[in-house]
Every structure is written in structure tokens, then in C-alpha cells.
Design brief:
The complex is a heterodimer of chains A (about 130) and B (about 525).
Chain A (H helix, E strand, L loop, with lengths): L4 E5 L3 H13 L3 E5 L2 H11 L3 E5 L7 H10 L8 E5 L3 H10 L4 E4 L4 H12 L12
Parallel strand pairs in A: 1-2, 1-3, 3-4, 4-5
Helix pairs in contact in A: 2-3
Chain B lengths: L5 E6 L3 H13 L5 E6 L2 H9 L5 E5 L1 E2 L2 E2 L1 H10 L5 E5 L4 H9 L4 E4 L7 H56 L8 H31 L8 E3 L1 H18 L3 E6 L6 E3 L1 H17 L6 E8 L6 E8 L6 H6 L21 H10 L4 E6 L5 E8 L3 H4 L14 E9 L7 H16 L8 E2 L11 E7 L5 H19 L2 E9 L10 H28 L1
Parallel strand pairs in B: 1-2, 1-3, 3-6, 6-7, 9-11
Antiparallel strand pairs in B: 4-5, 8-10, 11-12, 12-14, 13-14, 15-17, 15-18, 16-17
Helix pairs in contact in B: 2-3, 5-6, 7-8, 8-10
Chain lengths: ~130, ~525
């Protein structure tokens, strides 16, 4: 099975590095974008299996990114997980409404992130922890 | 109207007094004041509604109003305009009361010096504007403070995320093997990061409370679920301290009328607190029971074998930023927000919270909440006997998601939105949208409205479908509506209203249970 490609959209280089280490260790193939424009370009070019998207980005925010993805046929169907430090109760519903598959609040547990990624890409759970949506 | 002239409204029914006032105001500099005279309160209210008045001279005895009522009504008609009350010689007491009701000043008729009146008017206006300005500044400052805290807690989350991420990367050995000592130290870091995280969340919650953003949605909430959740999430922390955490309650405890999420949150705060203040090898116990003296209330007690608190402390313990000062307690005490948040959560759900303790004897925190009662909820529908004459209709609305609900939160959000939409389909005060009666494990959302609407179930179902159509389409949900008309139990002439309500509620409860079990069977198939 080929490694799944995951696009991480986050303007914080530390978070990008952390995700890179964690995802590579779990046999994913992560690549990165730091803002809305490069996110769309990177997605069109590399066709990821999944996007992990931060809401607070320089310039256009994560909601705009989701809107652009939905309007671009080549990437419209790629599932998106939103990760944000904003208030869960406020941001979550809006993110899901905008088309995100799942929402994860910052700070998150890597176990949760991996479980969400697996659930969203339709892989069976590998660890003992069973994800239930 | 002259430009720059201060517009003075005199509300006074004594022509002589008006003449006197007019002379006093014109003798200084002509054109500084422009006087409008009205002798009735309703005329004054109409005049004030047009705006443009700078100050009001108000007599407290008018043909259509007297005493404090005149002040209240005038203040209500123009809260942005200062009022000076005109009183009689022997009436300074009521003048003082008038000032508490919002008047700026008072002058005693017959004792006014002509020079003093213009000055009194100017001062009242000036003072009034200064007061308004300081009020605005205070509320602006409060708002800035809340915005600041909200911003701070948001900004703190990003570095916390990174720390947590990299500590767990190290702890999981992704950057090389660890010796046991290193693993232990990383565990310490992780524990502290979690602590910091919960403080940041508290900060966020508090700014929400301050800004009135705390969302509470009351429904039928299971006490045993809340207790089980709390024990589950804090068992680890208790074990780490060698504390025995247990719960004790009857399995047939009735549900409470509360917000399930907020109830869990409040209980977690209390138990977390108890664990924090109980020394190693102590006990923390959650006990839930029906209140002895009032069967309509349930009390949840969290008792600990900790250091206990003094009576003086128990008065202040729920205040914002209160810190327990225990010389024997090692370590940190936190932000002092937990119990304040807990109290806000409980009181905004219509409950009470209190603490009983003596130093050295542990503490018992108790939350009291009303038992969920369909009868009370339906009270408005049965408020008048007349309502009982028309048949009762139960309208069932079922919402499904063909692609599945993406998360529990998403489902809850839909429940809220649809609930609001359904509410707008009910036109009469006596129509009730029954609260969440979700049956565990059931996939579809389902709502029941109890209505006495004369148009009948068919028409209401149609109305619901029309009102929800757009949302259903957008959210890609499926909708089905059905209704059943309940046999009306006609109140016997001898039957007390109270008893009738009881019977009707029982009837509806039975019908709902029937609906629920029908759905259970359907979802199992």
C-alpha cells in the first residue's frame, strides 16, 4: 500500500515540523503550505489524500481555503480536517458547515490526530484506541 | 429655535411657577436658554420622543402623574437627558428619592435665587455628561479586559500545542530511545502542560461568562451518565495520588432538567478540586440522591477527606479569583477560577451550589438541580382549563443524515438549529417543543412537539416541512414528520386542575415512550 499523502496547512513552522515527525513515523507522506494561496497550489499539484488545515492563517483564513477547495473541481473532494486554537464551540460548527470532515482543538493529542486521520481516510484503526465519531 | 441655545423643557402645571422660571432664565444672558413649557406628562413624553431637549425641569405633581412615577416615566422617555426636579419646601425627602430614580438635582420652589437657576441647569448638564462618559469608559474597560483575556488564552494555545507535540514525540521514542529517567521526566513535563492547558481553558470560559456567551441548553439530563463520565475522566488523577474515587447512587435516579455537557463540566470541576485538596490515600466520593425534603430536586454531593475549609472561606470560595490559602498544601493552587465557573454553570442551569465543611474534616460540595418533569414543562399548555377541551396533538419530526453525522458535536449542533426552526413553527403559547429525549444509541434526531393547535396535525406537519425545507436541503438531511392526536382527557368538574395536569402529562409521557420504542425497533432493524 502506498503511503497516503497529507497536506498540512499551518503558518507555524514548529507545528509543521511536529506533524512531519509524527506523520512520517506513522507511514504517511506529509507536505506543507503556510497560507491560503500556496495551499491550493500545493493541493492541485500533489493531489493529497487528506488536508489538515489550521484556521488562523496570514491573509485569507482557513474558511476561505475551504471555500476555494470546494470551488475547485480537481480538489473539491479531498477530505479536510480542521485544527484550530479557536473556541471549540464557536469554530467547530462553522468548520463542519463549511465542509470539514472533522474538527480538532489545539492543543491536541497526537493520538487523537492520528485517529482522526485514519477515520477520515477510511483506514482501520491500528492502535488499541478505537475512534468513535 | 435659536442655534446654541440650551433647550429647556419645563413640565409644570402651575402657570405662576412657569412665569417665574421663565423670568429667571431670561434675566441673565438673553438667548442662552430656550424654554418649552408643557403642563402634562404625556405631552412631555411625546415632546421628548422628538429629541433635541438638553435638560428637563420637572414638577412632581402633574394632572396625569405624581410623585416618583413622574420621574420614572420622564427618565424612561429620555434617559439621555438630565432632569432637575422642582419640589415644595417640605419635600426634600422625596427630592432625594427622585435623585435615586435618575434625577440629577432638585430645586425648591420659592427658594430659588434668580442667579442660581441658570447655574444649576448648566451644572446638571455638565455633571450628567461626565457621568455618562465615565460609565462608557468603565464598560469599555471591562470589554477590553475580556477581549484581552480571550486573546491571551487563544495565543497561549499555539505554543502549548507545540510543546505538547514535541514532548509526546520524545516520549514515544520517535527521536531515539529513552532511558527510564528521561521517560519519567517527560511525563512530568506532559502533566504540567496539561495543567497549563486546563488553566487556559478556564480563562477562556471565564471571559465567555463575563461577556454573557455561556450557552446553556436545558433538557432531560442523566445524572448517572454525568457521574460516570466524571469518574472516568478523573480516575487516573485520583489513582496517581493514591486517592479512592467512588460513586454511590440508585440506578433508578430520575433525570434532571439541565444541560448535560454543562452538568458534566461542573461535576468535573468539583471532583478535580476535591482530588487536588485531598492528601494521598484519602477518599473522594460522589453521591447522588433525591433531596429528602423536596422530591422534585436532586442533589449531587462531592465529599472528600481533605483539609476542609473554614466558615469564612466557605462564603468566599465561589468568588472569582478566590484562592484557598492552605499552609499545609504543597504545590500550586491554580488560577482560582474553577469554583467560580462551577457556580456560574450551576446557577445558570437553575440549580444551587453550596459547601459544608469544618477544618480538618473534609468538605462536601453539593449541587442541587430540579428533577426533569414533563408535567412542569407542559404547565403552560395546561395553564388554562379551556385548553384541555381541544385535542392534544403530538407532532413527531425525525431528521436523518444519509451520510451519517460527522461527529457528536455536529449532531448536537444540528439538534440546536433544528430545534430553533421547529420552535418557530409553533404559533401558540400553549404549544411546547419537548426537550431532548434522545435515546442512547439512536441514530436519527427526533423531536416531539405537543400542541393544542386547532389547525390539526396535518397542517402543522406541512408547516414544519415548509419551514425546514431550506435547511434540510443545505445540510443534506432527510426529514419525516408524523403526528398523532391524543385522546383528550376531559377534566371532570370535580377534578382539581393539578390532578388533571398530572394525568395529561402521564398520557403524553406514555405516548412519547411508545414513539421512542417504535424508533428503537426501527433503528435496530
Amino acid at each position: 500500500m502506498s503511503n497516503k499523502k497529507i497536506l498540512i496547512v499551518d503558518d507555524d513552522p514548529d507545528i509543521r515540523l511536529g506533524m512531519q515527525v509524527r506523520l512520517r513515523a506513522n507511514d504517511y507522506d506529509p507536505f506543507f503550505a503556510g497560507d491560503a494561496v500556496s495551499a491550493l497550489i500545493a493541493a492541485e499539484k500533489h493531489k493529497p489524500d487528506l488536508v489538515v488545515l489550521d484556521l488562523g492563517l496570514p491573509g485569507d483564513d482557513g474558511f476561505v481555503v475551504m471555500q476555494r477547495f470546494k470551488q475547485t473541481p480537481t480538489v473539491a473532494d479531498i477530505p479536510i480536517i480542521v485544527v484550530s486554537a479557536r473556541d471549540v464551540r464557536m469554530a467547530q460548527a462553522r468548520a463542519i458547515e463549511a465542509g470539514a470532515k472533522a474538527f480538532l482543538g489545539k492543543p491536541f493529542d497526537d493520538v487523537e490526530l492520528l485517529a482522526l486521520i485514519r477515520a477520515t481516510t477510511g483506514e482501520p484503526a491500528r492502535s488499541g484506541k478505537i475512534f468513535s465519531a | 429655535m435659536k442655534a446654541n441655545a440650551l433647550q429647556v423643557l419645563v413640565v409644570e402645571d402651575n402657570e405662576g411657577d412657569v412665569r417665574l422660571l421663565r423670568e429667571m432664565l431670561s434675566c441673565e444672558r438673553p438667548g442662552e436658554f430656550e424654554l418649552t413649557h408643557l403642563s402634562r406628562l404625556d405631552e412631555a413624553e411625546a415632546h421628548l420622543a422628538k429629541g433635541g431637549t438638553d435638560i428637563i425641569l420637572l414638577d412632581m405633581g402633574l394632572p396625569d402623574g405624581s410623585g416618583m412615577d413622574t420621574v420614572r416615566r420622564t427618565h424612561a422617555a429620555a434617559s439621555g437627558v438630565p432632569i432637575i426636579v422642582l419640589t415644595g419646601l417640605d419635600d426634600e425627602a422625596s427630592a432625594a428619592e427622585a435623585m435615586r430614580e435618575g434625577a440629577q438635582d432638585y430645586v425648591i420652589k420659592g427658594q430659588i435665587e434668580s442667579r442660581a437657576l441658570p447655574r444649576a441647569l448648566r451644572h446638571a448638564i455638565e455633571r450628567f455628561h461626565m457621568l455618562g462618559e465615565s460609565d462608557r469608559m468603565r464598560s469599555r474597560q471591562m470589554q477590553l479586559k475580556d477581549e484581552f483575556f480571550s486573546h491571551v488564552s487563544h495565543e497561549l494555545r499555539s505554543p502549548l500545542t507545540v510543546i505538547r507535540q514535541f514532548v509526546s514525540i520524545l516520549a514515544d521514542g520517535l527521536a531515539g530511545d529513552l532511558n527510564p529517567e528521561q521517560a519519567q521526566y517527560l511525563e512530568v513535563i506532559l502533566r504540567n502542560v496539561r495543567q497549563l492547558q486546563s488553566m487556559v481553558n478556564d480563562l477562556f470560559e471565564v471571559t465567555g461568562i463575563g461577556a454573557g456567551k455561556l450557552r446553556i441548553e436545558l433538557e432531560s439530563a442523566s445524572v448517572s451518565e454525568a457521574v460516570a463520565h466524571t469518574v472516568n475522566s478523573l480516575q487516573g488523577a485520583a489513582k496517581a495520588k493514591g486517592i479512592t474515587l467512588s460513586s454511590d447512587m440508585r440506578s433508578d435516579l430520575p433525570a434532571v432538567y439541565a444541560d448535560p455537557m454543562r452538568l458534566r463540566q461542573a461535576l468535573v470541576i468539583l471532583v478535580d478540586n476535591a482530588v487536588k485538596f485531598t492528601p494521598a490515600n484519602g477518599t473522594v466520593k460522589i453521591h447522588a440522591r433525591v433531596l429528602g425534603e423536596d422530591a422534585n430536586r436532586i442533589v449531587l454531593e462531592v465529599s472528600d477527606s481533605g483539609c476542609g475549609i473554614t466558615p469564612e472561606m466557605s462564603e468566599k470560595i465561589f468568588e472569582r479569583l478566590f484562592q484557598a490559602q492552605d499552609p499545609n498544601a504543597a504545590g500550586r493552587s491554580g488560577l482560582g477560577l474553577g469554583l467560580y465557573i462551577c457556580k456560574e454553570l450551576v446557577t445558570r442551569q437553575g440549580g444551587q451550589i453550596r459547601v459544608e465543611s469544618a477544618p480538618g474534616q473534609g468538605a462536601v460540595f453539593s449541587i442541587t438541580l430540579p428533577v426533569f418533569s414533563l408535567r412542569n414543562l407542559l404547565a403552560p399548555a395546561f395553564g388554562k382549563k379551556g385548553h384541555a377541551q381541544s385535542p392534544f396533538t403530538l407532532v413527531v419530526t425525525e431528521m436523518g443524515s444519509p451520510v451519517g453525522w460527522r461527529s457528536c458535536e455536529m449532531r448536537a449542533e444540528q439538534r440546536r438549529t433544528i430545534g430553533q426552526l421547529l420552535q418557530s413553527c409553533l404559533y401558540y403559547d400553549s404549544d411546547v417543543l419537548l426537550p431532548n429525549m434522545d435515546i442512547t444509541g439512536q441514530e436519527d434526531l427526533f423531536f416531539i412537539a405537543a400542541t393544542t393547535d386547532q389547525v390539526g396535525g396535518e397542517a402543522i406537519c406541512k408547516r414544519i416541512r415548509e419551514n425546514l425545507d431550506e435547511h434540510i436541503h443545505q445540510a443534506r438531511l432527510t426529514l419525516s414528520t408524523s403526528y398523532r392526536v391524543l385522546n383528550t382527557i376531559k377534566p371532570r368538574t370535580s377534578e382539581p386542575l393539578e390532578e388533571f395536569r398530572e394525568n395529561m402529562a402521564a398520557e403524553i409521557q406514555a405516548a412519547m415512550q411508545q414513539e421512542s420504542s417504535l424508533r428503537m425497533v426501527k433503528s435496530e432493524q
